Amino acid sequence: MSVSVLLIEDNEKNLAAKKGYLETFGCGPILGVRDPDAAIHAARSLPHFDLVIADIDLSESSKRREEHNKGGVAVARWLRETNYPAFVAGYSSFFEGDEISESERSTFDDMVDRSVGREEQEAKFEDWIERAKRSDRTSTLRALLFEAYEGASREKKDYHVPVVSLDTLVDYDAEQLAEFRDSGFKLSLMLPTVDDEIRKAIPVWIKRAKNSCYIEVVGQPYLFADGTDELQAREALKSLIAGYYDDLRGRDPEKEMGSYVKFLFRFLDSLY
Q1: Domain containing 240: what range?
Q2: CATH value at residue 129
Q3: Quick check: pTM over 0.70?
Q4: Are 74 and 103 spatial neighbours (Cβ–Cβ below 8 Å)?
Q5: Residue 153 above 60 pLDDT?
Q6: Long-range CB contacts (< 8 A, 24+ apart) of 207-210?
Q7: What are the residue boundaries of the Response regulatory domain, all occurrences included (predicted)?
Q8: What percent of the chain clears pLDDT 70, i.e. is strictly above it?
Q9: Model pLDDT for residues 12-39, shown as the tens digit of each residue
Q10: Alpha carbons 127 and 130: distance in angstroms, whole number
Q11: Are residue 41 and residue 92 in the same domain, yes or no?
Q12: Domain boundary at 90, 114, 135, which?
């Protein structure tokens, strides 16, 4: 398995060196960015990365201590809040010890600070690659979705789609997933509390928090929305999908769209 990596490092020379080091382990694609905004944009707009590695200090190596920031922590916190399906690691050659709080450390799956030497840091990179390979649960579930879709008859897709929440499936172990796949259910990852029509057509990845909700169409990471609660996020997603549909409705779906998108748009044709 090749691990895709989002690498966040403000120093251009260090970015190139770390990217080259990751390539020696067969990682790819590797996207290197130099600031938090670019990292979040990449995570939102591109296919999901298996591994995110962030420099904690993204202040372009300022010599003034007061100008140093913890932009890498901000990125990791955003990834946590949106339940981004990647192994998230951090490192720092500036901060160490209690300069990084327990709360800040907890936003990463693993991290190293300035007290760790170069060789130890490189060993950590190798360890993070292996851990990313083992922890990619969401990719397993996405593969299950598309396997189920390809194996479903047209009648099953149109009229008999079961409803199973991703929140439920993420807790299944490998044996339970195998049993689920063999149980006769075909199209399996569905938004559990939405209109029957939407529920039949649009599998989603959903993250609920106390005062927010994030929804993304599975396999289409550019179709996402959020809101203060699930109802608001759901309505925003429906509006976004409708707008996307309007933009592409005039094209020939047989020539320009994959089977999943054609299925989605066939459903939307019945609504509009």
Answers
A1: 138-271
A2: 3.40.50.2300
A3: no
A4: no
A5: no
A6: 207/81, 207/82, 207/83, 208/167, 209/81
A7: 4-129
A8: 49
A9: 888 899 899 999 998 888 888 888 888 8
A10: 5
A11: yes
A12: 135
Mean pLDDT score, 150-170: 41
Name the domain count of the chain. 2
Beta strands 224-227; 110-112: pairing state: unpaired
211 and 111 inside one domain: no
User: What is the DSSP secondary-structure string of 77-95?
Assistant: HHHHHTT-SSEEEEE-SS-
Distance CA 166, CA 150 (A): 19
Residue 133 region by backbone torsions, left for phi larger than 0, else alpha for psi between -120 and 50, else beta? alpha
111 and 144 co-located in one domain = no
Helix, strand or coil, per DSSP, at residue 226: strand
Output 73 or 138, whichever has higher pLDDT: 73
Q: Are 6 and 42 spatial neighbours (Cβ–Cβ below 8 Å)? A: yes
Instruction: Give the domain-ending residue among 115, 135, 155.
Output: 135
Task: Based on the fold, state whether residues 211 and 179 are members of the same structural domain.
Answer: yes
Measured CA to CA, the distance from residue 207 to residue 189 in angstroms comes to 14
Q: What is the DSSP string of 196-213?
A: HHHHHH--EEEEE-SS-E
Question: Greatest CA span in the chain, whole angstroms?
Answer: 66
Pair 172, 118 in one domain = no
**Kind and range of the H or E run holding 227:** strand 224-227
Q: Are residues 113 and 201 in the same domain?
A: no
Predicted pLDDT of residue 159 = 36
Query: Do 142 and 122 belong to one domain?
Result: no
* Residues 215-234: tens digit of each pLDDT: 776 555 566 788 888 788 87
Q: Which of 34, 103, 46, 102 is CA-nearest to residue 72? A: 34
Mean pLDDT over residues 234-243, rounded?
A: 71
| C-beta of residue 78 within 8 angstroms of C-beta of residue 28 | no
Burial of 213 (0-12, 13-18, 19+ CB in 10 A): buried
